Amino acid sequence: MTDRTPAAVRIAERFREVNGAHPMTAEDDAYVTGQFVPLDTLCAGLGRDADEVRRLMLAALLPLPGYLRSDGAEMVPRDLFALADAAGGVWRLRAWFTGHWEDPDRGEEEWAAYVSGQYVCLHEVTPANIRRKDELTAEIGARLAAAGEDPPPEWRAALHARVDALDALEPAFTAYDRLRFGGPTSRDTCVDAPRARFPRPRG
Questions:
Q1: Are the C-beta atoms of residues 14 and 116 closer than 8 Å to each other?
Q2: What is the pLDDT of residues 156-168, one digit of tens each?
Q3: How many domains in the chain?
Q4: Is residue 93 part of a domain?
Q5: Do 22 and 67 form a contact (C-beta atoms < 8 A)?
Q6: Does residue 71 lie in a domain region?
Q7: How far apart (Å, rounded) are the C-alpha atoms in residues 198 and 68?
């Protein structure tokens, strides 16, 4: 991309401050292009000023892009503005969002994670889905920690029900995510690993 605005340059700088400077491969780019949309494209289609949206991102009022593609495109979810619309406007979003947690400190922690742009672990980022993902990963982790060598069929069925529910919430992730998060993703540990360790019964 060329002729980037000062706001776009600052977004790229802020993105790397949050995520580190990791390379995007051709496979990463292909994955991101299939899952997300360039910010300029989204804003043009909705009649929004992209630089104004960037300023809202830099003010931590909207989430940063989930990815920077190799060509510099700021990749964002297609429903980037959905939660702000549900809250009644971007200025009301923080209070609306954090109000979904009884513990104010936890709500603020989740808000910080949301505006970081790193909630790329959900097809649809909503407070309800964030809470459901946390519940499922905790339940799956606890079951795996307590599993014996040959758990009974009903235990396996309960595990697979939770794994399937998490699978429905999460996208596939890409290699870039494992670099910026410094290890395996929740899909690696709570979907792929349990299915490999305890295969679903045949028939």
A1: no
A2: 999 999 999 999 9
A3: 1
A4: no
A5: no
A6: no
A7: 36
